[in-house]
Amino acid sequence: MAQGEIDDWAGARRFRFADPARKNAIGLDTVTALYAELQRDPEAVFVLGSTSPDVFSAGADLRASDDDRAQVSDTLYAIYELMVTRPGPVVAVVEGLAVGGGAQLMAAADLRVAGGGARMRWVGAGHGLVVGAWILPELVGRSVATDLALSSRWLDAEQLLAYGLIPQIAPDPWEAASVLVKHLLCLDPRAVADFKTVTSAPGLVEQLSRERTRNAGWDGKATF
């Protein structure tokens, strides 16, 4: 069963992870449901968040079977690509931790709204994966991206702000997201779609494809 809550919210379609006891680890049902929702109305504003203020998502469920884990990983990459290429904007609302695939989802969003408890960590290299190589340099530059990906250190909200990963720290992230969504709904959809096309082509999607291919054979084992 998909661990997510789906609703229409503030004029947008909203998907919130809803398994805080397991840090919103993403299983096959959940990732399949998220992909379907993103596809349902590509021009709609889409909001991605969590029902818990403590955690956005710890990423793919590492306790899944090998076959399911491989499908989750590959579908997550399909989701990142869809987030970047769909004409409608995607807003990530992050109040707590975002790790691994959760960090990738946060980074892949067109706009990020974060609270004071937001934290991000990139742990791919410790699991034998290349994680974030397609998007981090675009957001923070190659030097900082390399440091974050290889050090696996935590970034708190103040550091996310300092590196430009979020534009500000919102006292009430969901209220700030509501204001943002209302603004987005007033924009010309074609202009929004064209802006996304220009900023993502051609290199970003190609880099994503290379990372996706590199990680396809991952055995699910961690090295630390």
UniProtKB/TrEMBL annotation:
A Gene Ontology BP annotation from the UniProt entry: fatty acid beta-oxidation
UniProt keyword annotations, A-Z: Isomerase
Gene3D superfamilies: 2-enoyl-CoA Hydratase, Chain A, domain 1 (3.90.226.10)
Alphabetized GO MF terms: isomerase activity
Highest taxon in the source lineage: Bacteria
Pfam entry (one): ECH_1
Transmembrane segments: none
Keyword Isomerase: yes
Keyword Metal-binding: no
PANTHER family named among the record's database cross-references: ENOYL-COA HYDRATASE, MITOCHONDRIAL (PTHR11941:SF54), ENOYL-COA HYDRATASE-RELATED (PTHR11941)
Name of protein: Enoyl-CoA hydratase/isomerase family protein
Organism: Epidermidibacterium keratini
